[in-house]
Specification:
The chain has helices at residues 3-11, 15-34, 43-63, 69-109, 111-114, 119-139, 203-211, and strands at 169-174, 178-183, 190-193, 198-202, 215-217. With 218 residues, it is mainly α. The strands form two sheets. The chain has a three-stranded antiparallel β-sheet.
Length: 218
């Protein structure tokens, strides 16, 4: 038995799904880190990944102490894979939490943004905003006139609610030909995007194509 046989045994019949999940998780992680706004919560993917992590932890705990060299190598492979998944999940969640911390009021007051939160993230966002408002009021807001105490004030046509800058430039790679010309709002610029092309372009111009899988952030 050589190393290829051992790796094949570790992977088993679930290798294709595992590989796809790893690719999807990596893509979700890169996209979330690159996009200026919070993206929809990938519930099915995260559920599968967390279940796999749980199963791998159980396998490791059951096999710890086994002196069989083949089993020990198998555990090393499993633990390496486990740490890779755990790193991606943690970094992915930290990235989302950083955006929630920064734009909590905007997300909670905008239904389309609230729909992108998981149940746990929604609870976190509500708690975060409640604590932040309580801190502001106890620190300085109560010293202002009542008309100036709102955190979501829009007086004078200027909103106090901080929002993501959707005109931020991002790097994007085209996965499928996009037949409709890309138009940059506010300019006379338009161009076509073909599979394999890489561009630096405003997020607002290519957001829908990233969302539906025609392109990916890099």
């Amino acid at each position: 038995m050589d190393i290829d046989d051992i790796l094949a045994e570790v992977s088993g019949d679930g290798s294709p799904l595992e590989t796809r999940d790893l690719q999807e998780l990596t893509r979700a992680w890169v996209t979330e880190r690159s996009a200026p706004e919070l993206l929809p919560w990938p519930s099915e993917l995260i559920e599968r990944v967390l279940e796999r992590i749980h199963q791998q932890i159980e396998v490791v705990e059951e096999q710890v102490g086994n002196v069989n060299p083949k089993t020990n190598f198998r555990l090393i492979v499993i633990q390496t894979e486990l740490e890779r998944f755990k790193f991606l999940v943690r970094s992915f969640l930290r990235t989302r939490m950083a955006k929630i911390d920064k734009y909590a009021l905007y997300m909670l007051s905008t239904p389309t943004q609230t729909a992108r939160l998981s149940a746990s993230e929604l609870q976190y966002a509500n708690t975060h905003q409640t604590l932040l408002e309580a801190h502001y009021r106890s620190s300085f807001l109560t010293q202002f006139p009542t008309s100036l105490q709102r955190l979501d004030d829009t007086a004078g046509g200027i909103s106090m609610v901080e929002q993501p800058d959707t005109d931020t430039a991002v790097f994007v790679r085209v996965l499928r030909d996009i037949e409709v010309p890309i138009v940059i709002e506010g300019t006379d610029t338009d161009f076509e995007m073909r599979r394999g092309d890489v561009y630096v372009v405003r997020w607002s111009a290519i957001r829908e194509y990233v969302m539906n899988g025609d392109a990916e952030l890099i």
